[in-house]
Design goal:
Layout (H helix, E strand, L loop, with lengths): L11 E6 L6 H14 L4 E6 L4 H10 L4 E3 L1 H20 L7 E9 L13 H8 L3 E6 L5 H12 L6 E9 L2 H14 L5 E6 L8 E2 L2 E2 L8 H18 L4 H10 L11 H9 L10 E6 L4 E3 L2 H9 L2 E6 L13 E4 L1 E2 L5 H6 L1 H11 L5 E4 L1 H6 L2 E3 L5 E3 L7 E4 L5 E9 L11 E8 L1 E3 L1 H7 L3 H6 L19 E4 L5 E5 L1 E3 L2 E4 L1 E3 L6 H11 L16
Parallel strand pairs: 1-4, 1-5, 2-3, 2-4, 5-6, 6-7, 10-12, 10-13, 13-15, 15-25, 16-18
Antiparallel strand pairs: 8-9, 11-14, 16-17, 18-21, 19-20, 19-22, 20-26, 22-23, 24-25
Helix pairs in contact: 1-2, 1-7, 3-4, 3-9, 5-6, 10-16
C-alpha cells in the first residue's frame, strides 16, 4: 500500500498499561510493526528513563526511540524532547505518526500525590490520546470496572480507546464485549489480543533482553503485526480506523508542538547559537555499552561534538584525534571476560586518561573504568583501572530510582554546584573498602590497589566523590561516584535534557586546547 502523505498536525498515540507486566511493550511493538508494514514512518518514543524498550522500538521501526520524562526534564523539557525526536528523525523521512510507549501503569510515576514522571503526565503535556492496554486474564465484567477506573481517574486525559490483552476463546471475547459496552460505552474497544506465549520477550536482571539478542526481527515483527491486526479484527476494528481516530484527535491547543512549525521552534530551544567548532568525542557503543539517551547525543552534537563511536569489546585502539571519552551504561558484566582480554583497548583508555582529558563513565561505563568487575560467579575480571575502585555483582537490586545530582567541585559538566537529573538502576556495588576510602580514608583506597588482579605500574590516584545526590522527593542520599584526576564515574545515568548547559560544558572541556584537569594518575586533583 502507498504510504499516505503526513497530515498536519502529526498524529500521536500513547500506548499505556494498567500496570507493569500487562503486555504494553508487546502491544506497542506490535502496533509499531503493523504501522511500519503498512508503509508508515513511525517515530517511537518511551515515557520514563528506560533504555531497553527504545532499542526494541528501533529494531521494529528503523528509527531511534527517544525518552520523554517529566521528572527528569520538566514539563517544557518533555515538549522539547518530543520536538527534538521528530526533528532528529527527519533525515530518515518526516514521521507519519508518533507512538509513545508508557511506563509502568498509566498513573504511576515519581509521586503518589500527582502525575509527575508518569505516562499520564506525558499524555497531558502533549494533549495526546491514550490507548489503554489491560491484561484481562481471569476477568469478564471486572474488566469494565478496571477500565472505568483508569479512564475516569484524571479528567484531563483523552482516550482513543482500549485493547484487552491475553484474551481467551470466543466465550471470553463475548463477555468482554458485552461488559465494556454496558459499562464503558464512551471508551471504544479497539482490540481483543489473544494469548500467545510465543510472543513473550525474554528478560534478565535489568529488564527485557536487548534488541540485538532477540531472534531475527523481520520474522518477529511480521508475527507481532499479524497478532495485533487479528486483535483489531476480533473487536470489529481495523488499522485504518485506528489511524483515522488518531488523526481526528489532534491536540486541541496548537501551541503544544503538534504542527511542523512549532516542532522546529520548540526543538531549537536551549541549543547553542551559530555553528560551533566540531570536536571529536569518543563514545563507547557495542553490546556491552549501549545505554545512551538519544537526546544526550543530540545535545552534544548541537554543542559542537562529533561522535566517534568505538567498541571496547572488539577495537584495539581509540578513535584518533578525540578530546574526551564517554562510556555509557550497559551490560559489561555479561561481557567481562572479553573486555578483560582486550588488553590493547584497556591500555589505550588508561593512556588517554593519563593525558588529563575528560573521561566519564555511567553505570556500566563506570564499572569499566574501575580496577575490576567481580561477576555473579565470583570471578574477578581486570578492567582499565582508571579509577581506584572495584565492583561486585549482587543477586539483588542495589539501587533503583530517580536522582538529582549536584557537583561538589568544578568538573567537565560545569562549575561546582551544577545540578542535573537522572536515574539509577544497578545490581553491582562498590567494594566496602573503596566506599570507606571515598569517605576520607585515603590509606584504604591505596591499600585496595593490592587487590587488583593485574598490577599497574602507575601510582594509585586519590579519589573523591563526584557529587551529592537527592532522591525523587528531595531527600539527601549523600555523596556518590568516584573521580580521580580528569576521570569520573557514577552509577547515575544522566539526562542532559534536564540541564542542556551540561552538554555544552562537556563539549567545551573536550575542546579546550590544553587539559583543564590534572592527569588521572599521580595527582589528587579531581574534576
Amino acid at each position: 500500500m502507498t504510504r499516505p502523505a503526513r497530515p498536519a498536525p502529526l498524529p500521536v498515540l500513547v500506548v499505556a498499561g494498567t500496570h507493569s507486566g500487562c503486555g504494553k511493550t508487546t502491544a506497542a511493538l506490535a502496533l509499531m510493526a503493523a504501522l511500519t508494514r503498512r508503509g508508515l514512518r513511525v517515530q517511537p518514543m518511551k515515557s520514563g528513563p528506560d533504555y531497553i524498550d527504545p532499542g526494541l522500538h528501533a529494531a521494529v521501526t528503523g528509527r531511534p526511540g527517544w525518552n520523554l520524562d517529566g521528572w527528569m526534564c520538566g514539563p517544557e523539557g518533555v515538549r522539547r524532547s518530543f520536538a527534538r525526536a521528530v526533528r532528529a528523525g527527519e533525515p530518515h523521512g518526516a514521521p507519519d505518526i508518533a507512538i509513545i510507549e508508557g511506563v509502568m501503569g498509566l498513573h504511576d510515576g515519581a509521586s503518589a500525590d500527582g502525575p509527575q514522571g508518569s505516562t499520564a503526565e506525558v499524555a497531558a503535556l502533549l494533549d495526546a490520546p491514550v490507548l489503554l492496554v489491560a491484561d484481562v486474564r481471569g476477568m469478564s465484567r471486572s474488566a469494565a470496572a478496571l477500565v472505568a477506573g483508569y479512564t475516569r481517574f484524571d479528567p484531563s486525559l483523552r482516550f482513543a480507546g482500549m485493547v484487552c490483552n491475553r484474551v481467551g476463546g470466543p466465550g471470553h471475547r463475548d463477555l468482554l464485549r458485552r461488559a465494556l459496552d454496558a459499562h464503558c460505552p464512551d471508551i471504544p474497544l479497539l482490540g481483543l489480543l489473544p494469548r500467545d506465549a510465543t510472543l513473550g520477550l525474554p528478560s534478565r536482571h535489568l529488564g527485557l533482553a536487548q534488541a540485538h539478542e532477540h531472534a531475527a526481527w523481520p520474522e518477529l515483527s511480521a508475527r507481532l503485526a499479524d497478532w495485533f491486526e487479528a486483535g483489531l479484527d476480533a473487536a470489529g476494528q481495523s488499522l485504518d480506523g485506528l489511524l483515522t481516530r488518531c488523526a481526528a484527535m489532534a491536540p486541541r491547543d496548537a501551541t503544544k508542538i503538534a504542527t511542523p512549525e512549532n516542532l522546529t521552534a520548540t526543538a531549537a530551544k536551549g541549543l547553542s547559537e551559530g555553528a560551533p567548532r566540531r570536536i571529536r568525542i569518543g563514545i563507547a557503543r557495542d553490546a556491552a555499552f549501549s545505554f545512551l539517551y538519544p537526546e544526550n547525543l543530540f545535545l552534544l552534537e548541537a554543542a559542537g561534538a562529533e561522535p566517534a563511536f568505538f567498541s571496547p569489546l572488539s577495537d584495539a585502539a581509540l578513535p584518533p584525534d578525540i578530546g574526551g571519552l564517554l562510556l555509557p551504561g550497559g551490560y559489561p558484566e555479561l561481557h567481562a571476560p572479553r573486555l578483560a582480554a582486550n588488553a590493547p583497548m584497556l591500555a589505550a583508555v588508561r593512556a588517554f586518561a593519563a593525558l588529563g582529558r575528560p573521561v566519564h563513565g555511567e553505570c556500566g561505563g563506570f564499572m569499566y573504568l574501575m580496577r575490576s568487575i567481580t561477576d555473579a560467579e565470583g570471578t574477578r575480571h581486570a578492567m582499565t583501572g582508571c579509577l581506584p575502585a572495584a565492583c561486585r555483582m549482587d543477586a539483588r537490586l542495589r539501587a533503583l530510582g530517580y536522582r538529582e545530582a549536584q557537583t561538589l567541585r568544578p568538573s567537565p559538566f560545569g562549575p561546582a554546584g551544577t545540578v542535573m537529573r537522572g536515574h539509577e538502576f544497578h545490581y553491582s556495588h562498590l567494594d566496602p573498602a573503596v566506599t570507606a576510602g571515598l569517605a576520607g580514608a585515603a590509606e584504604t583506597a591505596k591499600a585496595a590497589e593490592a587487590d587488583r588482579p593485574t598490577p599497574s605500574a602507575l601510582p594509585a590516584p586519590s579519589a573523591l566523590p563526584v557529587w551529592s545526590l537527592r532522591d525523587r522527593n528531595g531527600a539527601p542520599l549523600g555523596p556518590e561516584g568516584v573521580c580521580a584526576g580528569s576521570v569520573s564515574g557514577t552509577y547515575v545515568h544522566l539526562h542532559f535534557g534536564s540541564n542542556p548547559a551540561v552538554a555544552r560544558a562537556f563539549v567545551a572541556a573536550c575542546a579546550a586546547p590544553d587539559p583543564i584537569f590534572a592527569p588521572a594518575y599521580g595527582d589528587s586533583a579531581c574534576p
